[in-house]
Amino acid sequence: MVRYSKRRAVWPLRFLLILCLSLVPQFALPHKALAGITSASDNFARADGPLGPNWTDVSDGGLAIASGAVIGQAGLLAGDMWTENAFASNQFSQVQVTSTQLSGGLWIGPAVRMQAGGQSAYAGIYNWNNGDPVLELFVRNAGSWALLGSYNSGPLAAGTRLRLIATGNTIALLEDGVLRIGASDSTLTGGAPGIMAFGNAVAGHWSGGNAAAFRVSYQSTDASGIKSYSVISADNGYGPQTLRVLNPTNPAAGVAHNFLIVLPVEAGLGSTFGDGLATLQALDAQDKYNLTIIEPTFGIDPWYANNPNDPHLQYEAFMTRQLVPWIKENLATTGEEQVWLIGFSKSGIGGQDLILKHPGMFSLAATWDFPADMSSYDQSGGDSAANYGTDANFQAYYRLTTTFVAAHKGSFRTSNRIWIGGYQFFQTDVSDYDALLTSEGIAHSTETPPQDMAHRWDSGWVPIALAALYQDSLDLH
Hints:
Elements: H1 14-23, E1 39-42, E2 49-50, E3 55-57, E4 64-66, E5 69-71, E6 77-82, E7 91-96, E8 107-115, E9 120-127, E10 134-141, E11 144-151, E12 161-167, E13 170-175, E14 178-184, E15 192-198, E16 202-203, E17 206-210, E18 214-221, E19 227-233, E20 241-246, E21 258-262, H2 276-282, H3 285-288, E22 291-295, H4 315-331, E23 339-344, H5 346-357, E24 364-368, H6 382-388, H7 391-397, H8 402-407, E25 418-421, H9 427-439, E26 445-446, H10 462-474
């Protein structure tokens, strides 16, 4: 390998540096005085040779600059880490595809959490694959490679951006902002962002740095008008999650616009108990009540709690610190929207916990056939234990006891903000909770009389709950 002397970029005027930083706060300059920066970039627009002092070659061999692009070594594995600055464990790295087409078995792509001389890293690569191009996601641990996922991309156009993100235990490879490969892996933390390549593959402009703890990317809209977004969250982990959104298209005249969050009872897009969003759409709830309807997904069956033992299962924090602020910032039309919750079973008790603990964030909650008398964190089996984490956590922060309800009743004494109803499995629980709310002076409405229906989204209780939510909402405007 030909070695070149390293040359540090010099900025001639100190005031120019200060001016640049004041005008562009996230602009990353190649100087160790800026060790606190959160991002960096390199367009490789300089003389051919090694990448320079901001970079550190991996132990397999280093990359080089050739004609304003970064290039690997013929027949060899190579890579470089950006080591001029220190970054958090949540990282991103991005490169651009150039007009120089790959060939044979060449590959190149962004890498994150690079460490131990590059012997450990996550790498998202564009692999020419001998004429059948694919995107692939790997974890390299102590020199051993393991495939986390692949996507048949076909040839990528010049300028295509490949971004690799590691947030918590979620690793994701995006093509021009669209999620192509997502995985959950906890092998590596820390390290640095960079680039890896096999053979003399070429890539363009690089950027990398700290990744946000929460990221939402639009993916597609289906034939019925439901939009899907990819969510990468440090609190809602174990892989990227899907967020579905249904907007009103012909809202009823004179009806104020509000948000309705559907609280699923299953992991992912599971529909064993029906599809909450589809049930609402079939009722034309989005237009009849002028609602933007939002349904998140989760890595495990959600009880909407923070697990003290698992930093990747912080579902209460995800809902309150990430999802609702995003909804208000990106989906509001008036800025005066109420936020409603609807759920049943585990998302029924979860919905009650959320509104009682966060009355300034959630306006109304409708919950149906839920285990209000649940007395231990593992009473409902493995998924409740996995979400609550410990019985002490459940008892202190989530169990619907007289003490818990009394401590949070202050905002619920004058207007009906809670609706409860129905039964199949939990008739006594719901009636007990009704009595508890009444005893604590909490204004609420109920399904009268409570009806025995199938424990599903589509069994007939949702339109009753919706009508109650709308009626109660009128008193809050």
